[in-house]
Amino acid sequence: MVVNQEQVASDIQKKSGQFDYLLLLAVLGLLAIGTVMVFSASATTSYQTVGNPYYFLERQLMWAVLGIIALAVASRVSYWRYQKWAVPLYGVSVVLLVAVLIPHIGININGARRWLGVGSLQVQPSELAKIGMIFLFARLFTLHHDQLPHFVRGILPHLALAMVILLLVLAEPDLGTTVAIGGTFFVMLFVAGAKKRHLGALFASALPALGVVIAVAPYRLRRIVAFMDPWKHPLGSGFHTIQALLALGSGGILGLGLGYSRQALGYLPESYTDFIFAVLGEELGLFGTITVVVLFMMVAWRGYRIAMRAPDLFSSLLATGFTTMIVIQATINIGVVTATLPVTGITLPFISYGGSSLVLSLAGVGVLLNISRHTT
After folding, report:
1. Is the pLDDT score of 333 beyond 50?
2. Residue 185: which of 213, 165, 210 has the closest Cα?
3. Which residue from 295, 297, 315 is spatially nearest to 307, judged by alpha carbons?
4. Confidence class of residue 370 from pLDDT cuts 50, 70 and 90?
5. How many other β-carbons are positioned within 10 Å of the β-carbon of residue 253?
């Protein structure tokens, strides 16, 4: 059946209603908590390194403002128009992911090439790849919906496109983001109508592939060993986990108070990025961590509710993709900090310090809010 996209877009605009304000409030709550925690977790390090305790706070505020602007714009642009951006965004993402791997172009930090930029102005191409991947497969799964029940001509071509992104991100190396992108692709494929046995085959083949990826990288294997018993390697591969657990344990129920974290004084690596949840638990206690978890649960609830009530398959897949990406990242990050998952580098959405990650995550929420105006 041929769909008149202009007519569909016009009908969608006529039926627009109110934003999902519960989703917006949950995200703004996470953003507010994150801004406070970035300052609290980074002030000492910031003063020691650049002589300005507000260095990371100022940049986080700048990115937050840009992100809110991106959210506002995305919430006003009809989601139907994003179909035109899908292929160009995917292409740009691939080019940037290749560029970041080239010496003297990609910025090497702690052995990983994940950033492009100059000086303190840096962006992660993998963050754009997340957006590009969601747009692309929302469009392709909508166009090829009738082909998805067929493994060879329906799933394999799309899997090949996804593997380009996954392998490039994995080469940075960034296993955490690779898992998040792969998991989002899998969930979108499920929502689009792929058969359960085909999804089961994909999942079953992904597990040994993940095992090989871990086995060929000694540092990943050490992290798995440390995950089993971090106390056997207290100054090595188990150091991050132990320090995070000490922070969470020290916080108790109500926490030590904002600015009173001991682990943020240089004991806990990445205290304002990957392990900021541990500092939050130390300063705000169990009450603070539960508040953050509840807010993420609210984002998941409202995001998937929007997906289920979306007016068409394309918007449903967009909402599913953006919600799933946030949920997977939050789950991995909190799982790592609480020692329920092996250590891997991935930030906590809206909470951790970060530029491109924060801006593009907020832009994704803007897309969700736009779709929410047209839900039934």
Report:
1. yes
2. 165
3. 315
4. very high
5. 9
Measure Cα distances from 144 to 37, 140, 181, 322 in Å: 44, 6, 21, 20
Q: Tally Cβ neighbours within 10 Å of residue 220.
A: 19
Segment 113-136, tens digit of pLDDT: 888 876 667 788 999 999 999 999
Quickly count helices (H) and strands (E) in the chain.
13, 3
Q: Is the Cβ–Cβ distance between 184 and 204 less than 8 Å? A: no
Q: Is residue 9 part of a domain?
A: no
| DSSP for residue 323 | H
Please state, in angstroms and rounded to a whole number, the distance separating the CA atoms of residues 346 and 334.
10
The span from the CA of 126 to the CA of 119, in Å, is 19
**Does residue 11 lie within any of the structural domains?**
no
Measure the CA–CA gap between 297 and 275, rounded to whole angstroms: 20
Structural tokens at position 59: 């940049």
What are the CA-CA distances from residue 315 to residues 79, 87, 194, 208, 297 (Å)?
A: 7, 17, 17, 33, 21
Do 40 and 57 meet the contact criterion of CB atoms below 8 Å apart?
no
pLDDT category at 8 given cuts 50, 70, 90 is low
In a domain, 58, yes or no: yes
pLDDT tens digits for range 160-188: 999 999 999 999 989 999 999 999 999 99
Quick one: pLDDT at residue 15?
A: 61
In our burial notation (b when 16+ CB lie closer than 10 A, e otherwise), range 40-71 reads bbbbbbbeeeeeeeebbbebbeebbebbbebb
Residue 332 lies in a domain: yes
Q: Quick one: pLDDT at residue 234?
A: 86
Looking at the 3D structure of the chain, how many domains does it have? 1
Rounded-to-integer distance, Cα 237 and Cα 38, Å = 25
Range of the domain at 156: 25-372
> Helix, strand or coil for residue 122?
strand
User: For residue range 219-243, what is the model confidence (pLDDT) as tens digits?
Assistant: 888 888 888 889 888 888 889 999 9
